[in-house]
Design a protein that fits this description.
By secondary structure, the protein is α+β, with helices and mostly antiparallel strands. It has a single domain, classed as 4-Layer Sandwich (Deoxyribonuclease I, Chain A), CATH 3.60.10.10. Helices cover 26% and strands 23% of the residues. A six-stranded mixed sheet has the order 3-4-2-1-14-13. A six-stranded mixed sheet has the order 5-6-7-8-12-9. Strands 10-11 form a two-stranded antiparallel ribbon. It is globular. Belongs to the DNA repair enzymes AP/ExoA family.
Length: 266
């Protein structure tokens, strides 16, 4: 099964690119973040026409929003609200075979990495804490976590570790929170497990760069993790099983995130 996560930054605006990606890569499951539309505005007909008839959508007007679409049946749809904010940032489904797939859009956290001065950063840390509490229970369940988690945890998950230590998404308080979540939830960060620790991995490049590809100042914000029962299956096919589709970042009117895919035997 090929599972893809992609922060699309408005699914209606970029539906042509999404359909092109589905035709070229033929994933079984596509998890989208920042869909930025209500449930009844989601382009369900376009997905169904492309062969993705199974959908779990948790939308919100103009902001946030997540959706999981698939060629295979999705059961037990469940959105979870975090931090009592009313934001559409999560949807869970059960895949054929029983694995539970959680699709997340973690808050970006604003610009100031100080929870006392910046409520958005405080919200992000609280969100991570709630995720940790949720997934520290029943660690032996087959789970897959995907999404734009808005944290680049490792030194080589950013273009400059030293220069970004005080920049939101790579501050020690955030990276420590993510590492605690991975440890307490019993997860494997698949991308890092399948590559050498010193290999640069990015899935996001800022719109602000005049030539994002040439400057290559990226960050790895988009993740695929698996719980212990799925670890062997996630790693069995080797490094080629996980791909960051960097070329998609260069398509016309792109999202600032590239899709990330994993081939896993479920």
């Amino acid at each position: 099964m090929r599972i893809v996560t992609w922060n699309i930054n408005s699914v209606r605006l970029r539906i042509d690119s999404v359909i092109r990606f589905l035709e070229e890569e033929q994933p079984d499951v596509l998890c989208l973040q920042e869909t930025k539309c209500l449930n009844d505005q989601f382009p369900a007909k376009a997905f169904a026409k492309a062969g993705y008839e199974h959908m779990a959508v948790n939308g919100q007007k103009a902001y946030h929003g997540v959706a999981t679409v698939a060629r295979v049946p999705l059961t037990d749809h469940q959105p979870i609200e975090f931090c009592g904010m009313g934001d559409a940032r999560h949807i869970a489904v059960t895949l054929p075979g029983g694995a539970r797939l959680h699709n997340f859009y973690v808050p970006a956290g604003g610009d100031e990495p100080d929870p006392e001065k910046n409520p958005k950063f405080a919200h992000k840390l609280a969100f991570m804490e709630e995720m940790t509490k949720l997934f520290s229970k029943k660690k032996k369940e087959p789970r897959i976590i995907v999404g734009d988690l808005n944290i680049a945890p490792g030194e080589h998950d950013v273009w400059s570790h030293k220069q970004l230590l005080k920049v939101v998404s790579h501050t020690p308080v955030e990276t420590d929170a993510m590492k605690a979540l991975i440890k307490k939830g019993g997860f494997t960060d698949v991308a890092r497990e399948l590559t050498t620790e010193d290999e640069k991995l990015y899935s996001w490049w800022s719109y602000r760069a005049k030539d994002w590809a040439a400057s290559d100042r990226g960050r790895r914000l988009d993740h695929i993790w698996v719980s212990e029962p799925l670890r062997e299956a996630a790693l069995a096919k080797g490094p080629q099983a996980l791909k960051i589709h960097r070329d998609v970042r260069g398509w016309e009117k792109p999202s600032d995130h590239a899709p990330v895919s994993l081939d896993i035997d479920l």
